[in-house]
Design a protein that fits this description.
Length: 135
């Protein structure tokens, strides 16, 4: 007898992650998806910051796909907080929009490169030194 989860996984064509088993977004490549972490502005909740980045991007040239926020946070050893978002479809167009919006708001971006948290200002911090939190 199959569990409800197994049936759903079969329908969806993939594994449903359990909260305690979540993979760090961007740690493993996902075809057609790009992950980027944006610096917390220290003023607003993550959802408002996510929307503000896109609102600050100016004219968005992406022709397909979209941008999605996630509940993962990375705290650097110095306490700086980053939230994750991902985009799919027109990767180049969405990347340009996110980078433009972050620049307009004076926010750093970061990516996971191997076992490092690579920040747009040139710093690279081992992930093992960062605190990772899923909410």
């Amino acid at each position: 007898m199959s569990s409800d989860r197994e049936v759903l996984e079969q329908i969806l064509g993939g594994t449903i992650e359990q909260r305690g088993q979540r993979a760090l977004p961007g740690l493993r490549p996902v075809e057609g998806v790009e992950f980027v972490y944006y610096e917390d502005d220290g003023k607003s909740k993550a959802k408002k910051q996510f929307n503000a980045i896109l609102d600050s991007a100016g004219s968005i040239r992406a022709t397909s796909g979209g941008v999605v926020s996630d509940s993962c946070k990375i705290y650097m050893p110095d306490g700086h907080l980053f939230h994750v978002l991902s985009y799919h479809g027109d990767i180049e167009g969405w990347r340009e929009a996110v980078e433009s919006g972050a620049k307009a708001r004076g926010l750093l971006l970061a990516r996971i490169e191997g076992d490092q948290f690579a920040i747009s200002d040139g710093r690279s911090i081992p992930l093992s030194e960062c605190k990772i939190e899923f909410s």
